[in-house]
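Treating backbone geometry as a discrete language has practical consequences that deserve illustration. Part of our work consisted of pairing the sequence of a single chain with a tokenised description of its backbone. What the numbers capture is local backbone geometry rather than side-chain detail. For completeness, the protein is quoted in full, as a sequence line and a line of structure tokens:
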Amino acid sequence: MARFLPAFLCVGVGLAFALPAAPQTIQIDKSNKTIAINTTDEATAIADIAAVAVGFEVFGPDYDSAYADGGKISHAVMDALHKAGVEDKSIESSGQSLQRNTEFDDKDTKEMRAAKQFVFSQSWEVSVPPQSAAEVIRAAVAAGANKSGAIDWRLSDRRALQAKAAEAALVKARAVASQMADGLHVKLGDLIYASNETPSTRIFIPTASQQIMVSAEAMSAANANLLPALEIRPQTVHEEATVYAVFAIE
């Protein structure tokens, strides 16, 4: 959806131009007339990168046992990702920690609390094509990654989408300028100046968390690779551009 900012008719205004690292300069010349337009438009594309959050959390009665169990799951998850076809260059560590547990459920018995005195957690970001996201999640969860599933949808060529948004905004600017020229009974001339301001990328993602929590009771099925792959579809990436354009009028 396009947004139009105020348009201006400049009579007796000459060429507008910008110098590097300097403010825009407008020259006054009685022999020239211009129409200046600000417009905003956007372009969209389907994300071609799925940055999948993969991680786990495991508890232990003491430091050593929590670390040992965490190490086993860590290696199992990495091995499962490799078997799923994910290369090392597509896997980045997000965080890891081993600390005393301070959060217990009110329903935990004394024995349960004793078994959860320490907590080991580790997480990665795995970047794959959208069609591979479901298998990455399935393989990771099956290996013990019980806190996985959130996806950050990205576009590999953002600049191309930004350029497309700027082009759409410029086309809209000419259309608005043409309408103004018709109303003023003048003829719209050539584009003599244009600048582009592209805001940050806006990516639409669900507000609800996509993270998957797997209980200890479900891990037997996970380790047996009985978990089905999820139905996941890539989301849309939006780029917005604002263009300031100056057209000559005759």
Observations:
- DSSP finds five helices and 14 strands in the chain.
- The longest helix spans residues 158-183.
- Residues 142 and 222 are 4 Å apart (CA to CA).
